[in-house]
Amino acid sequence: MELLNNFTQIVIETPVDKIINQIKELITSGQLKPGDKLPPERKLCEVFGIGRSHVRDAIKKLEFYGILKTLPQSGTVVAGLGMTALEGLISDVLRLEVKDFRSLVETRVILETNAAALAAQNRTEEDIENIESALAAYKKKKDAGIHAVDEDLMFHLSIAEASKNSVLKSLMLVITPDILTNYRELDACGDGRSDTALELHERILFYIKEQDIEKATQAMRDHLSDILDFSNTLQVEQFNLKKRKK
User: Fold this and answer.
1) What is the DSSP code (8-state) at residue 228?
2) What is the pTM of this model?
3) Is the pLDDT of residue 171 over 50?
4) H or E segment at 71?
5) 119, 162 in Cβ contact below 8 A?
6) What is the sign of the dihedral through the CA atoms of 127, 131, 137 and 143?
7) Helix, strand, or coil (residue 78)
8) Which of 98, 151, 228, 231 is most buried by a 10 A CB count?
9) Does residue 168 contact residue 112 with C-beta atoms inside 8 Å?
10) Are residues 61 and 109 in the same domain?
């Protein structure tokens, strides 16, 4: 059994992941600089040899992270912001220690409950449409029996966007990608948790629509209590495992 500890999980990258990694490499190497314009989607599709939907998804995700910015009639440019978020997105999250995972989750609870409260207070009709769109994408993937980790991220970032607090959103961008990737690696979405998560997502959206600050905050807290309990249990298991090895 000890031999198994020498193996690591194989992560299969999607076309969207590969595009993000290539853009990241171009930025970190200095070949793409803040203000530089990306080639048109059609040209990128030809170079990557994939469909336009993958290119659009990658660009949309990087826009959420603040890496790229699409300007009307000007195309997509490098924003020069959010590099920490980009590094978090593609970092080796498997190296995070359990205690770090728990700290990230605790920080997320603080940020997201406040994001829900501010979203209920400040949201616009456009914000509601964006949150609804993200939730629909999450539900579609869940109904197909696929872990909707990326769609979950988009749902929560849409709420952060609706909060109208750019600092809060930036902090979430730094920690949330690593947290959600850990969910996938640790199977935190198993045991029917995705069904419960969908119900709580819908409740959060309802109270944000109703602009009920108190109930939106509590709904977000209820939603995150499950993963907070999971991180606490994981920490105890890791502690007991270390004791047995001694």
Assistant:
1) H
2) 0.59
3) yes
4) strand 68-71
5) yes
6) negative
7) strand
8) 231
9) no
10) no
